[in-house]
Amino acid sequence: MGSMKFLWILSILIFCNCSLNAQPDLPFMMPYIRHFTPEIYNAQNQNWGIAQSKTGEMYFANNAGLLEFDGSSWRLMPLLDRQTLRSIAIGADGRVYGGGFETFGYWDPVQYQSNYFRALSAELKISLGKEEIWNILSRDSGLYFQSFSTIYKFDAENINTILPPDNIMFLQSVDNRVYFQVIDGGMYELKKDNSLELLPGSNALEKTKVSFILPGFKSGELLIGTQDDGVYLYSENEIVAWKHPWNNVLKSQQLNKGIKLQNGSYVFGTILEGVYIFNSSGKFLHHINKETGLQNNTVLSLFEDKDGNVWVGMDKGIDLIELNNPLRYFNDYSGALGTVYTAILNDGYLYLGTNQGVYFKNISEPGRKFQLLLGTQGQVWAFYSDGTLLCGHNNGTYEIRKETAKLVSDITGGWSFAKVPGHDNKLLVGVYSGLILLKKDNSGSWVFDRRITGFNEPVKRLLFDENHFLWVVHPQKGVHRLLLDTSLDHIKEIKSYGESDGVKDLYKLHLFHWENQIALKSNCLYIRDPKLDKFECINTGRYGWNVKGSRIFGADSLWFMSKNSQLWAGRKDTILQKLNVRLVPDYEQIFEFKSANAPPFYLFCQENGFAIIDKQSFNNHKSIDQRLRLKYAELVKDGKSVEGILADKVRLHSSQNSIRIYYSEVRFDQEPMYRYRLTGIGKEWSEPTTQSSVYFQNLPPGDYNFEVKPEPGTEIVLFSFTILVPWYQSWWAYLLYFLIFAFIIFLVRQYLRSRLLAERFVFEQKMKEQELFREAIASKEKLEQEVHLKSRELAHSAMSLVRKNEVLTDLKSKLHEMFKGDARAKDIFTRINEHIESDQDWDSFVEVFNHVHDDFFKKIQLKYPDLTPGDLKLAAYLRLNLSTKDIAPLLNISVRGLENKRYRLRKKMGLPEDTNLTEYMMSL
Q1: Mean pLDDT, the chain, whole residue set
Q2: C-alpha 119: how far from its chain's center?
């Protein structure tokens, strides 16, 4: 009955938020608390006010200015002169109004790139003296800016100054009515006409300071929190102390802030001890302080967001208490329990198996803490219960009955248990050195029976399949299928599976049933095909997630995946949500507890405690994809933002081709993850990322669609833009290029035509010149032939003269012998000598010689003017290439005389001795 009672309480606690607030039985189970440190939001410690915009962004009044948080990124917008921002509120116009020292005004969140604070107090010429605006109320009738001494009512155009009777602490809005307390005085209502009305009977508060005023537990009642006197109730003109056991505690904790939640619960923030939460009827639910998970005990501001979760602004940091999250946690911040490896609910007790031993808690004693079960110190690996509870321990196997433990087997390392099919009183235990068998004795207790021989490897996990084969995995590497003999004495058959059987990764395998089949998990999800006795590796698609590197748990249609220290829940091929649970690496354990009288729930083992969630909450899961939105985009040049763009279908200049796009999923229960792609340069989605902006640089001209979606999630947000082609790539530029090209072609054509004509003219001239040249060559050849003939004739004539002179000389010699001394012969000799020395033949020779040899005598006489007629004759004969023997008769001298004459001629001409005189004459 104790087990049923716990299941009933626990399931109701998780399943229904209103029921959760009605159950005080499990105060040790806390909601998830998400921490935001000053290092995370990059501002100062203290946070004085909290507000949420209509689109979901959170705003905080920080010492450094206005903090904006969109779920992914933080932005700081300083106040003028970097003054402390004391108060904020969201106006009906969507603006964020803030107040500080001697100023109040607003930021316009639509101007995403502008941190400019518009000071209304300066524009309206309101002198605040040296006061600060500590509170801002946003009402339909306008905004109320409140300092200690004055209230300023702003209706978007005009401002009215309202002076309370004395200094006040805070304005409070309750059921569309505005209240405040005068310090050391009574409480007043601020009417819509700006008049003040003292609440009858409120003077009872003169000796205390009111911190907050909230709607009471019943209609028309006010709940009043004070700094030093706890909580009061005001109803029917009477103030009475709240008659509640915790009120005495609250008196010593200095109440500072209070809010009433949408579900009727109350949250009180204190200066000394964090947050207290009560349900709508006043029953205590939680006390959350630094010891139980809050960053700081001094609460400066409280706010409930649209999800029903509570934000806490503290003296140092910001926390989010996820009251609306179905997960509940027991966090062992002291480290007393150690790392939780396993858990079980048995006979009204909750048992935790940790690395330090077994800890237990009697659920019927809610105030009792977890205690160490004596004798179980050490590593605890597993629990098993069929009414009798067994504990697998580093030292062996224990039987546990309520708060005592007895050693059943001292064979070390009870890692896992499996009931032997067909033997209700037989239980297999996987240990460090193989398998052992336990059996029940007549008293119903488990006792050691025997070791199972034939298999001595460590067994971390084991289970039977439908054919009664025993499957076991090694803690480090390996998976085997074993067949027990009928006597349960030894293993008679072993089959080890490996790569040839489809299991490519054998390290640190997780063994479980999946969809009624044997399944293994390492870097793949391996599912066995019993017909082929092979395993198939499934990485993507089938379960809607890339399961590589993760572990899978669960049965039925619900499953969990632990990947990169994050836990995801899904059903069939759909991912439902990411859970704020971090399982123990390599010892990931999730237990499902079921009951006939209550919905089942899951318990998650963690390194510093455990978490629980009602299984029914997954059926009630609602998508939050609609919270994803595009914030804005900005153009970037030289790494700096130059212009923001908000409109869709933007047309950008070709030089505006570097763009940074900002987006966010306005959710705060966990850090959002995104996938994105830019169609135009690719179609593949990016890997999941927590970055809420992406930068594209040097994009080519074209049409682009930027798409982003949450992970997990299906809704896609689209941003379209076009980068125009540069002017030199536009259609009119191409037309201009065509015209220019055509004009160039025309010019080239004209140039080539004129060049062709010129070349044709040159060619014709060359042809004419060649014709003339051929004619000249022919004429020259003809002339040369004539010259040659003339030369031959001239030579022939010269030779004729030579022969004539030789004949006359010979005749003269013979006549001289015949008529020696005869006077009559003298006249004959004279006549012969006249013919030999006659100049008539020479003159004829010279005439012909000059005609043939182009005035040779003129040229040589110009070059050598000292030459005698005899020298000229010798030169002419040499020009004709006549030999010495032929020349001597022509000159009527001997050969020796000719040699002397040649010598004299060479000397007159100044020729070197090695110069051939005949060749020289011919060269002239």
Answers
A1: 85
A2: 39
Q: What share of the chain is helix, strand, coil (3-state, %, to 5)?
A: 25, 40, 40
By the 10 Å C-beta count (0-12 exposed, 13-18 middle, 19+ buried), 135 is classed as buried
Residue 838 confidence (pLDDT): 55
Residue 832 one-letter amino acid: I
Numbers of helices and strands, H then E, in the chain: 14, 64
Which residues of 22-107 form beta strands (DSSP E)? 30-36, 47-52, 58-62, 65-69, 74-77, 85-90, 96-100, 103-107
More confident residue, 622 or 244: 244
pLDDT at 891: 75
pLDDT score for 790: 65
> Strand 717-723 vs strand 650-652: parallel, antiparallel, or unpaired?
parallel
CA angle 310, 316, 320 (to 5 degrees): 20
Report H helices in 55-180.
Answer: 120-123
Euclidean distance between CA atoms 27 and 13, whole angstroms:
11
**210 closest CA partner among 142, 141, 135, 128:** 135
Q: Which residues, 6+ apart, have CB-to-CB distance to 192 below 8 Å?
A: 141
Q: H/E/C letters for each residue in 802-856?
A: HHHHHHHHHHHHHHHHHCCCCCHHHHHHHHHHHHHCCHHHHHHHHHHHHHHCCCH
- Confidence at 431, pLDDT banded by 50, 70, 90: very high
Q: What is the pLDDT of residue 4?
A: 39
Specify the higher pLDDT residue, 522 or 797: 522
Q: In what order do the strands lie in the sheet with 196-198?
A: 172-174, 177-181, 187-190, 196-198
Q: Are 35 and 299 in contact (CB under 8 A)?
A: no
Q: Does the structure show a pLDDT above 50 at 833?
A: yes
Residues in the chain: 924
Token pair listed for 829: 């000799």
Distance, CA of 676 to CA of 710 (rounded, Å): 9
Question: Which phi-psi region, left, alpha or beta, contains residue 549 (left: φ > 0; alpha: ψ -120 to 50)?
Answer: left
How far is CA 744 from each of CA 747, 749, 752, rounded to the nearest angstrom?
Answer: 5, 8, 12
How deeply is 718 buried, as exposed, middle or buried, from its count of CB atoms within 10 A (0-12, 13-18, 19+)? exposed
pLDDT at 867 over 60: yes
| Confidence at 17, pLDDT banded by 50, 70, 90 | very low
Q: What number of other Cβ atoms are within 10 A of residue 923's Cβ? A: 8
User: Does the pTM of the predicted model rise above 0.85?
Assistant: no
Task: Decide if 70 contacts 41 (C-beta within 8 A).
Answer: no
Per-residue pLDDT band at 62 (split at 50, 70, 90): very high
Q: Which residue has the tokens 């069939």?
A: 572
Contact 595, 553 (CB under 8 A): no
User: d(Cα 786, Cα 797) in Å, to the nearest integer?
Assistant: 16
Instruction: With CA atoms as reference, report the closest residue to 327 among 565, 13, 35.
Output: 13
Task: Give me the pLDDT at residue 797, please.
Answer: 65
Tell me the mean pLDDT in the region 181-189. 93
800 C-beta neighbours (distance < 10 Å), count: 12
State the maximum Cα–Cα separation within the chain, in Å, rounded to a whole number. 203
| Strand-pair partners of 703 | 722
Q: What is the pLDDT of residues 899-911, one digit of tens each?
A: 888 888 888 888 8
- 154 has a pLDDT exceeding 70: yes
Query: Rounded distance, CA 732 to CA 711, Å?
Result: 46
